[in-house]
Amino acid sequence: MSIQNAIGPGLAPKEFMQGYLEALALVERLHRLLLDVIKDEFERVGVLEINAVQALLLFNIGENEVTAGELKSRGYYQGSNVSYNLKKLVEMGYMHHERCEIDRRSVRVRLTQKGREIREVVSELFARHAEGLESRGVLDFGGLDDITTSLRRVERFWSDQIRYIY
C-alpha cells in the first residue's frame, strides 16, 4: 500500500497533499540512500567492521563527549538502537566510555583515535559530495539554503504537533 493510498481525503487541497506525501517519501528515501552511500564508501576503502549507522554516529559525535540520551534527542538515529551501537563501538575500540560523575547511571562517550579516523572517512566523503553538487551545478548555496530552511520549518511544525498534543 502506498503512502498516498494510506491517507484518505483530508482538509488539505489534493495537490498540496500529494506534494507533501511525495516530500515525506523523498526524505525517507534520502535517509536510506545516505546510509547506502556510506556503506558503499566503507566497502570501497576496506572498512567492513562497522555499519553505516555506526559510522554516522561517530561522525555526529565528532570531538564532543555525549551520552546516549543526548544522541537520541538529536534525532539522528530513528530505527536504530543507539545504546546497542554505542556498546558495539566501545567494544571495537572506536569509542571511550566512562560513568558520568554527577549521574552514575549515565555513561559519557567520546571517540578514540580509531573512531576519529572513521569520522574523517565520512567527513571526506561528505566534502566530496558537497564539492560535486556545487561543481556540477546540481545545487548552489542558495538552493541548499532554501532546502535547509524549508526542512527546518517542517521540523519545527512537527515538533509543535508533538508538544501540543497533551
Description:
This is MarR family transcriptional regulator. InterPro entries: HTH_MarR-typ, MarR/SlyA-like, WH-like_DNA-bd_sf, WH_DNA-bd_sf. One of its GO terms (molecular function) is DNA-binding transcription factor activity. The protein is mostly helical and 166 residues long. It has a 3-stranded antiparallel sheet with strand order 1-3-2. It is built from 7 helices and 3 strands; from the N terminus they run H-H-H-E-H-H-E-E-H-H. The chain starts with a helix and ends with a helix. The protein has a single domain, classed as Orthogonal Bundle (Arc Repressor Mutant, subunit A), CATH 1.10.10. Helices cover 66% and strands 7% of the residues. Strand 2 and strand 3 form a beta hairpin. The model has no long low-confidence stretch (mean pLDDT 88). The longest helix has 32 residues. It is globular and about 50 Å long.
